[in-house]
Amino acid sequence: MDSRIQSYLRFAVKQQRDTEQIGPFLATFNRHSANPFLNYAIPNDAATPSLSNIKALIAAYKSRGRKPRLEYVPSLAPAVEEALVAAAFAVEGRLPLMICTPGSEQLLPVSPDIELIVPVSDAEILATVTVQNEAYGESAPSPEDGKRLGNSLAAGGIAVLARVAATGEPAGAGVCSVPENQTTEIAGIGVRGAFRRRGIAG
Question: 114-195 belongs to which homologous superfamily?
Answer without folding.
Answer: Gcn5-related N-acetyltransferase (GNAT) (3.40.630.30)
